[in-house]
Design brief:
Layout: H1 3-13, E1 23-26, H2 30-40, E2 48-51, H3 54-62, E3 76-81, E4 85-86, E5 92-93, H4 100-108, E6 110-118, E7 131-135, H5 140-150, E8 153-156, E9 167-172, H6 179-187, E10 192-195, E11 197-198, E12 205-210, E13 213-216
Parallel strand pairs: 1-2, 1-3, 3-6, 6-12
Antiparallel strand pairs: 4-5, 5-11, 7-9, 7-10, 8-9, 12-13
Helix pairs in contact: 1-2
Bound molecules: ribulose-5-phosphate.
Length: 217
């Protein structure tokens, strides 16, 4: 199976977690786009979806899947999203697409987080993929200096603005022996809105697809 086929297999395997009549939290990215395409096939069974980005909202609407405001629901039964890296502990690095803050909000508001990945994303330890941090623009230099003190190399994502009007700093070459501790440390830096480590609230289910199809971790 190609990587695209593996992404599709993971995306389609997530359908069985969707309850009839429910509202589904939907992440962002190429794997999630395949999930949205699959969800379109059962759209008559769901009430709607909460989107984690403008791109996802547009794709949901293009399939006539009703988009619901997170503030109009008491909570969500399920959140489906991809990841840039994942461990067997279901700790994740996310935010390659820059939607990390809204993704973390929708994940937090959901009872169950099902993460869908192809096998290239499964790693022993997080840190190969740079950790994205969403930052208030005026804090760019300050946050960069704090990242250097932590041992990382801050790189501004050039020309990129998040859906919230902020910048992204990608942290390269930062060892991550304790993802939960680092997630908290990064969040404690003034000017940081959110970071791409999803460890304090990991995925509940990891659907990994390889050439044999999707399996659950
Ligand atoms: C976007 C994300 C995505 O889930 C992550 O980047 C994976 O994307 P893809 O499925 O395209 O590989 O966190 O902010």
């Amino acid at each position: 199976m190609s990587q695209e086929q593996q992404k599709r297999a993971a995306a389609e395997a997530a359908l069985k977690y969707i309850e009839e009549g429910s509202i589904v939290g939907v992440g962002t990215g190429s794997t999630v786009n395949l999930f949205i395409d699959a969800l379109a096939g059962i759209r008559h069974l769901v009430e709607g979806a909460v989107a984690s980005s403008q791109a996802t909202e547009e794709r949901l609407r293009s399939h006539n899947i009703p988009v619901v405001d997170l503030n109009s629901v008491a909570g969500l039964p399920i959140y489906i999203d991809g990841a840039d890296e994942a461990t067997e502990h279901r700790h994740l690095t996310k935010g390659g697409g820059g939607a990390l803050t809204r993704e973390k909000i929708v994940a937090a508001a959901s009872e169950q987080f099902v993460c869908i990945i192809d096998e290239s994303k499964l790693v022993g330890t997080l840190g190969g993929f740079p950790v994205p941090v969403e930052v208030i623009p005026m804090a760019q230099s300050y946050v960069g200096r704090q990242i250097v003190k932590l041992g990382g190399q801050p790189v501004l994502r050039d020309g990129f603005k998040t859906d919230n009007g902020n910048i992204i700093i990608d942290i390269r070459n930062l060892p991550i022996p304790d993802p939960i501790a680092l997630e908290q440390q990064l969040n404690a830096i003034a000017g940081v809105v959110c970071n791409g480590l999803f460890a304090a609230r990991p995925a509940d289910v990891l659907l990994v697809a390889d050439s044999n199809g999707a399996r659950t971790l």
